[in-house]
Amino acid sequence: MQTTDIVRRQAAERRGDTLDRLAAERDIWVSTGHPDHGPHQVPLWFLWDGRAVWMCTSATSATARNVREDPRVRLALADTFDVVLLQGEAECFPDQEVPADPAEAFAGKFGWDPRTGDGPHVYIRVVPRTVRAWRGEQELHGRVIMRDGTWQG
Question: Which residue, 60, 30, 66, 59, is CA-closest to 123?
Answer without folding.
Answer: 59
